[in-house]
Amino acid sequence: MNVRSFWEEKVSRLPDKTFLVFQEREFTFKAFDRLINRVANSLSELGVGQGDRVGGFMPNCLEWLVLYFAVAKLGAANVFVNTQYNAELLRHAFSATDLKAVMVSTSLLSVYEEVREDFSKLSPQILVNDASEENPAPSGMIDYQELLSGSPSDPPKVDLPPRTPLQFIFTSGTTGLPKPCVTSHRYLLSMTRRIARLLKATPEDRFLSCLPNYHGNVYIGTFSALMADAVAILESRFSASQYWQWVEQYDATVLTLHITPMNVLLKQPPRPDDADNPARAGIFLVGEGAIPFLNRFGLSLGLSMYGSTEAGGFCTMSPFGPDSTHDSRFSGKPRDDIELQIWDENDEAVPADTVGEIVIRDKVAHTIFSGYYNMPEKTAGTCRNFWFHSGDMGYLDAAGALHFVGRAEESIRVKGEFIPVDKLEACVRRHPAVEECAAVGVPSDIGEEDIKLFIKLQTGADQDPEAVCNHCREHLPRFMIPRYISYVDEFPLASSAMKIQKVKLKAEGVGAAWDRLKNSENLQQTERRVGR
Q1: Burial class for 283, CB neighbours closer than 10 Å (0-12, 13-18, 19+)
Q2: What is the largest CA-CA distance in the chain?
Q3: Fewest C-beta in 10 Å: which of 98, 100, 137, 497?
Q4: Cα-Cα-Cα-Cα dihedral sign, residues 337, 340, 346, 348
Q5: How many angstroms separate the CA atoms of 317 and 281, rounded?
Q6: What angle (nearest 5°) sits at the alpha carbon of residue 516, between those of residues 514 and 522?
Q7: Distance separating alpha carbons of residues 13 and 281, to the nearest angstrom
């Protein structure tokens, strides 16, 4: 099975059923397929074919999703680039993937123009007008509307074995420049088939997705809906203030989220009608907030998951309900088409309930990523011993379920104790002045590390680090109380959409942070009195 045959079976069987709702515009399978075919045939006439790579530098828009399917039908690979990239990172992304063609939105044209001279051989170069006024395409570019003159019939068939590259997705690049992960047709279809099954999705479901197109989340929502003959609903971006309005407006029953937007929604002021909405299930609900999210917003089902772009998207997944008692690190059981183990520093498997590195391999070829494009040494290094080494720490319990502890590079060790960072951050987020936070380890003057906490405040809140420490002291043991606190207006986010880049925070060191031990004599005296 490949995305083209999978899609065309749906079109043949359900031509008049609604496939997509994008910002209130509805499309049946047949109507959307005609758009796909017009663009695919036009691209083919312009020289795009099997094995090529087509770049996309645009926000979520209708043209983006049409391009995605059109490129897949031709046997080419999609390369959607982070819309937050500056010229330097955009240049890297285009160079690293040997693009044949590119589609750019008018809202990002100024960034593209900075690198365009370096990629003069890209053909075609297509402009999507996402502005309210007309914007003629610059010399050497063609308007997307011209692609719609292509034939609405299916483009010529091509051989598409399941291992065919479907999309290149860039890693977050926390330890260097982002690397292009090659993901296959099988990769996406295998993962979303299992998600739909665990959600018990039906044709009556409506999946809402709103994270950006350079992040795998939006494709997971769209294709999980397709697996169940359900409706895919897409919005251009995540908005905490509008999210529940969209759920009501679109009658959404399944929410495609991840931990950061989940926590953002939990931080919104409670309302008496929070649970009065049509949603029944949520994807990728993990951490301290997962069970509270289901209870507050009236969902009956969540999927706890773990994964990465390299690890097949999500390689573990298990359903849970609002009455579940699992701990915050629970991430579900490995998929039946993927093998997962926990290894020590000598690449030896460890017993149950022992923390080590999470390593993964597929039982069916190309279920996880197919390597980093044109980076054989990087691929070999991360896939040594024929296993993908995630760099993440976790353990398997006696029942075989994974519990995620954290990134090895983000672990914190204080006076011989490993800090459960997820519990510390969850505690701080419950402080009414805190919108978001992140904890990292910085060098301690007595060896090992001290905890440095970065805080983004709620609008209108004042900086009060002593109050935050008091809050921590009420709920956490002594060794988990942060020593240093810094305040930020915004966090550095990875291209994996809203994931805080802790490596960058850690690189700042102690800096000018508020120091609990040096600047809070009263707090120190209190700690001595209570033996902390």
Answers
A1: buried
A2: 80
A3: 98
A4: negative
A5: 14
A6: 120
A7: 27
Residues in the chain: 532
Q: 404 vs 310, 320, 412, CA distance in Å?
A: 16, 16, 15
Tell me how far apart the alpha carbons of residues 467 and 526 are, in angstroms, rounded to a whole number: 13
Q: Closest by alpha carbon to 96, among 68, 123, 115, 111? A: 115
- Cα angle 345-346-351, degrees, rounded to a multiple of 5: 80
- How far apart CA 89 and CA 235 sit, in angstroms, is 26
CA distance 374 to 12: 38
Q: Are strands 125-128 and 142-143 parallel, antiparallel or unpaired?
A: parallel
Contact 144, 127 (CB under 8 A): yes
110 token code pair: 């100024």
CA angle 493, 499, 500 (to 5 degrees): 60
Distance CA 53, CA 43 (A): 12
Distance CA 308, CA 390 (A): 8
> What residues have CB less than 8 Å from 241, skipping those under 6 apart?
268
User: What whole-number distance in Å separates Cα of residue 222 and Cα of residue 16?
Assistant: 18
Here the tokens at position 470 are 């008091």
Q: Would you say 531 and 480 are in contact if contact means Cβ atoms under 8 Å apart?
A: no
| Token output for 301 | 């089902």
Residues paired with residue 318 on neighbouring β-strands, in sequence order: 304
* DSSP label at residue 493: B
* Chain centroid offset of residue 503 CA: 18
What are the pLDDT tens digits along the chain (532 aa)?
Answer: 999 999 999 999 999 999 999 988 999 999 999 999 999 999 999 999 999 999 999 999 999 999 999 999 999 999 999 898 899 989 999 999 999 999 999 999 999 999 999 999 999 999 999 987 888 899 999 999 999 999 999 999 999 999 999 999 998 654 567 899 999 999 999 999 999 999 999 999 999 999 989 888 899 999 999 999 999 999 999 999 999 999 999 999 999 998 888 988 998 999 999 999 999 999 988 888 899 999 999 999 999 999 999 999 999 999 999 999 998 899 999 999 999 999 999 999 999 999 999 999 999 999 999 999 999 999 999 999 999 999 999 999 999 999 998 877 777 888 767 788 888 999 999 999 999 999 999 998 777 789 999 999 999 999 999 999 999 999 998 889 999 999 999 998 875 556 788 888 998 999 999 999 987 655 455 555 544 4
CA distance 40 to 54: 12
